[in-house]
C-alpha cells in the first residue's frame, strides 16, 4: 500500500546537478553517472577492483553463507557510550559507562546504524543505513570480524551528525575497494549535506588529486524505491517538533531509529510487521526527540510486531538489567521484546 504522506513537505522537484539522481519509485536499475566515477591512482580498473572485492566479501570467513542478515553496526546515542564525562567524574560513578569500557561489554554503544547483508550471484550485497560520527570505529571492529568488504549503498534516515558524520570516512572504500558508493537521501537532508559535506556533493571545489569519498547522491521521495533489488518503503516520523526523520520498511522488517511521534499515516505502513527495530533512548521517559522505553513499549503494543529490538539507548539503560525486565513481558503480555547491541547479527528473510 502506498499512502500519501502530507507530513513530508520537502519531497518534490529540485534542480539536480550532474552528480545527483532522482530515484524513480520501484525502478530496478540505477543510473551511473560517468562524472562520479574516476580511475584510482594506482592505475587499476575500478570495476575489476570492485568485482574482486565482491568476491572476497562473499568468500570471507565469518559470513553466513547464503543467509540474509542484519548486523547492528551501532545501537547508541550521538555521544556514544561510555561517556568521557562519566569516566572522568571524580565524585559519581556511572555503572553503565564503567562497564562499557570492558572488552565485549554490551553497554558499549556507538552511533545507531545497521547493515543489511544478503547473497547475490556476484557476492554478498551490503546496504548500510546511516554512517554517523563513530562509523569508522564501528567498521573497524565489525567489518573484519564479519568479513564485510564492500558497501554497496548507504541509506540516510536524517541529516544529524550521528547519521551522516561518517560520510567522509567512506573514502577508504571508494579509494581502495570500489569506484563509488550510492547514497540515498531525502531532499531536505540532501540540502543539509550541501552545506555540511559540500566537498562531497560538488567535488569541483576540492583540490585536484585530493582523495575524498566518491559518492553518488540519489534523492528519494515518499514512494517505495529499489536498492539492489530490495524494495525500501520510507516511514516518515517526527524526530522532535517539525523535524522529519525517515524509518524504512524492507520486506516485513521495519526500522525506525530516531522518533518522537509516529503520524497516523505511517502506522498503515507498519501493518503485519514481523521485526520492528525502534528507538528507545532512556528507561524512564521520552525526550523531546526520542521515545523512552515506556513510550516505545506502548508503540509495540499498538503496532503488534512479531518481535521487537530496541536501539538508540543512552547510558541510563543497562543492557543486562533492562533485558531481564523486558524478558518478563513475554510471560505477562506475550511481547517478544529485547535490546539490541553493537555487533548483534541476526538472520532475516528479505
Automatic annotation (TrEMBL):
Q: Which Gene3D superfamilies match?
A: Ribonuclease Z/Hydroxyacylglutathione hydrolase-like
What the entry lists under InterPro entries is as follows: Metallo-B-lactamas, RibonucZ/Hydroxyglut_hydro
Q: Which residues form the Metallo-beta-lactamase domain?
A: 110-313
The UniProt entry, under Pfam families, shows: Lactamase_B_2
What's the superkingdom here? Eukaryota
| Full protein name | Metallo-beta-lactamase domain-containing protein
Which organism is this protein's natural source? Rubroshorea leprosula
Amino acid at each position: 500500500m502506498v499512502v500519501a504522506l502530507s507530513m513530508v513537505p520537502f519531497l518534490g522537484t529540485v534542480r539536480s546537478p550532474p552528480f545527483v539522481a532522482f530515484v524513480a519509485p520501484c525502478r530496478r536499475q540505477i543510473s551511473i553517472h560517468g562524472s562520479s566515477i574516476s580511475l584510482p591512482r594506482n592505475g587499476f580498473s575500478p570495476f575489476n577492483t570492485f568485482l574482486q572485492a565482491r568476491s572476497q566479501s562473499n568468500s570471507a570467513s565469518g559470513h553466513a553463507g547464503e543467509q540474509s542478515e542484519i548486523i547492528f553496526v551501532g545501537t547508541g546515542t550521538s555521544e556514544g557510550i561510555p561517556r568521557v564525562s562519566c569516566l572522568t567524574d571524580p565524585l559519581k560513578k556511572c555503572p553503565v559507562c564503567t562497564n562499557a569500557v570492558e572488552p565485549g561489554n554490551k553497554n558499549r554503544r556507538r552511533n545507531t546504524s545497521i547493515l543489511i547483508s544478503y547473497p547475490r550471484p556476484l557476492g554478498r550485497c551490503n546496504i548500510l543505513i546511516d554512517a554517523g560520527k563513530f562509523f569508522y570505529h564501528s567498521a573497524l571492529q565489525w567489518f573484519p570480524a564479519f568479513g564485510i568488504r564492500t558497501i554497496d549503498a548507504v541509506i540516510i534516515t536524517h541529516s544529524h551528525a550521528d547519521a551522516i558524520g561518517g560520510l567522509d570516512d567512506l573514502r577508504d572504500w571508494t579509494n581502495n575497494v570500489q569506484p563509488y558508493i550510492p547514497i540515498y537521501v531525502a531532499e531536505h537532508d540532501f540540502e543539509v549535506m550541501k552545506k555540511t559535506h559540500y566537498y562531497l556533493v560538488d567535488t569541483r571545489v576540492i583540490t585536484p588529486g585530493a582523495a575524498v569519498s566518491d559518492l553518488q547522491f540519489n534523492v528519494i521521495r515518499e514512494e517505495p524505491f529499489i536498492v539492489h533489488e530490495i524494495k525500501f518503503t520510507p516511514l516518515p516520523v517526527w524526530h522532535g517538533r517539525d523535524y522529519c526523520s525517515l524509518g524504512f520498511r524492507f520486506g516485513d522488517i521495519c526500522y525506525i531509529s530516531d522518533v518522537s511521534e509516529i503520524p497516523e499515516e505511517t502506522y498503515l505502513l507498519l501493518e503485519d510487521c514481523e521485526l520492528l527495530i525502534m528507538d528507545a533512548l532512556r528507561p524512564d521517559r521520552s525526550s523531546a526527540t526520542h521515545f523512552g522505553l515506556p513510550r516505545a513499549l506502548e508503540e509495540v503494543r499498538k503496532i503488534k510486531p512479531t518481535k521487537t529490538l530496541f536501539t538508540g539507548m543512552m547510558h541510563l539503560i543497562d543492557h543486562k538489567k533492562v533485558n531481564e525486565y523486558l524478558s518478563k513481558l513475554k510471560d505477562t503480555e506475550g511481547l517478544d521484546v529485547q535490546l539490541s547491541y553493537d555487533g548483534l547479527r541476526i538472520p532475516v528473510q528479505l
